[in-house]
Amino acid sequence: MDVYEAISARRSIRRFKDAPLANEVVEKILQAGTLAPSGKNRQPWRFYVVSGGPKKAEMVGILRAALQRLSAEGHNMRWPEHSVDIIERAPVTVFVCNPEGQRPWFSHGSDQAMMQVVDTQSVGAAIQNMLLAAQAEGVGSLWICDVFIAYDELCDWLGEKGELIAAISFGYADEAPAARPRKPLSDVTVWVK
Q1: What count of other Cβ atoms lies within 10 Å of the Cβ of residue 14?
Q2: Measured between alpha carbons, how far is residue 8 from residues 5, 79, 105, 136, 188 in Å?
Q3: For residues 89 and 44, what is the distance between their CA atoms, to the nearest angstrom?
Q4: Is 103 part of a structural domain of the chain?
Q5: What is the spatial distance between Cα 34 and Cα 1, in angstroms, rounded to a whole number?
Q6: Domain that holds residue 127
Q7: Is residue 11 part of a domain?
Q8: Does some domain include residue 42?
Q9: What pLDDT digit, counting tens, does each position of 136-156 carry?
Q10: Cα dihedral across residues 46, 52, 53, 55: positive or negative
Q11: N or C: which end of the chain has fewer CB within 10 A?
Q12: Helix, strand, coil: what percent of the chain each, to 5?
């Protein structure tokens, strides 16, 4: 599959088959993430792979406890609850962190704030590489930010002192969603002459 085919065929998958992913496939996808460009070649990423057993149950418990707490506080948890259901059913979830970053609500000096923006863009490139590599391997994926509902709890559980950027769930797709509408290129492009 060439890169344009992977880009065109990639979909956000929310239903996965009950089939494990081989560690070799997961490692191939992670390796693609490490090949992403990064500002000053800092490679500001760390991947935590959760693939089942008691640790997965702990992770889901952390997320469900956050859902309950936030729901009791009056927050609308409809979409985060859906994301947690997906994470629970996915064979593999990878937490993507920037070990050099700080939690978003910490105060940053201007140099740290600038580097954090650059690092976040670099991590985004790593995530996109992983999504495209998964597509090329016949693996479905979903980029998830709803894990922020339990940001501190998850960082503590992972032992991560840096910044949690996102999670990605992986598995063999049990759905084939149609392409979502896209804005025309003419609506999002300005030629500066």
Answers
A1: 19
A2: 5, 26, 36, 11, 18
A3: 29
A4: yes
A5: 20
A6: 3-188
A7: yes
A8: yes
A9: 999 999 999 999 999 999 999
A10: positive
A11: C
A12: 50, 15, 35
Strand partners, 164: 97
Length of the chain: 193
Which CATH number covers residue 97?
3.40.109.10
Total domain count, the chain: 1
Give me the tens of pLDDT residue by residue for the chain, a chain 193 residues long. Answer: 789 999 999 999 999 999 999 999 999 999 999 999 999 999 999 999 999 899 999 999 999 999 999 999 999 999 999 999 999 999 999 999 999 888 777 677 787 788 889 999 999 999 999 999 999 999 999 999 999 999 999 999 999 999 999 999 999 999 999 999 999 999 999 999 9
